[in-house]
Amino acid sequence: MTAPASAGTTEFDKESLRNHLRDKLGPDGGLFVLERIGGGQSNPSFFLDYGDRRLVLRKQPAGPILKGAHAIDREYRVLEALFPTGVPVPEPVHYCSDEGVIGTPFYLMKRVEGRVFTDTSLAELPADQRRDIWMAVATTMAAMHALRPETVGLGDFGKPGNYFERQISRWDRQYRQSDLQPVAPIEQLHDWLSANLPEDDGRVALCHGDFRLGNLMFHPTEARVVAVLDWELSTLGHPLADLGFCCMPWHTAPDEYGGLLGIDLAEMRLPSEGEFVACYMKAAPDSPPLLPFHKAFALYRFAVIFVGIAERARLGNASDPEAARFAPLAERFAIRALEIANREPHKLGPF
To answer: pTM of this prediction?
Structure first.
């Protein structure tokens, strides 16, 4: 007997999906259960029990989307490339580009069991476990950056050279595609970043693009990452872009998408930003230093991402029905980046 998905859990024809999977994966033995995974601002995801397989389905959102966004084909390619390596990712199962099946392209991956922490303070954990979790974030990121893209079939996954210059241009274009009102701090930050680009050192690594605590799944009991999730922004780029991005919690407040700014880190047994970066550098000893530019750039990207979330909320096709509440964070993240540009030492140019 087939257990139906709960009302409202899908926005597509479930039987069309089932028929497609029968052709690609074989019969389901009467077990076909689809359940929407709540939360998230990106590509809608679902738990899928198909026969004896425990899977996750990930798809593009329905309706109009910004050009280049929600690139699930790139996500799937990364999973295929990394699964045989030591970088932990879910096992890819099937990719479907045919929009006629469920309305958008989608892919399937095996479900990984573990813990996902959305609270960067890790308050749900015993205090003596929190530091180890954050150190695992740093060492997993370093292991990902240590891979040579050409050796795993990703040598053409992005353009070589001038990574930050190209990224600033890309995110500026994405920002300007929105029909929302201009955000002055974002535009001011764009100008500062453009004027303070570091010299291109030629480093190229696989960059996740959204490497943060909430996109990692940890072992059920150990401080060990068992899956890096959400690869839609991945590309070839500079590893310090990921590191700067992962440092955002130390520069944003708890009410700004769950940051750590203002929290007593020592009392909470959490590492400082310097300790977190030092852990990464120990695992990646040839890395150049992390500069204020890299952290400001990371906040700029996330500010533009929040503009996109607000735009999808306006259009009515955001993954989270309450996505509109994140719209003010576009300006606040840009302001936090400008604070870094103003106050931190080793600035690359005048502000």
So the answer is: 0.87
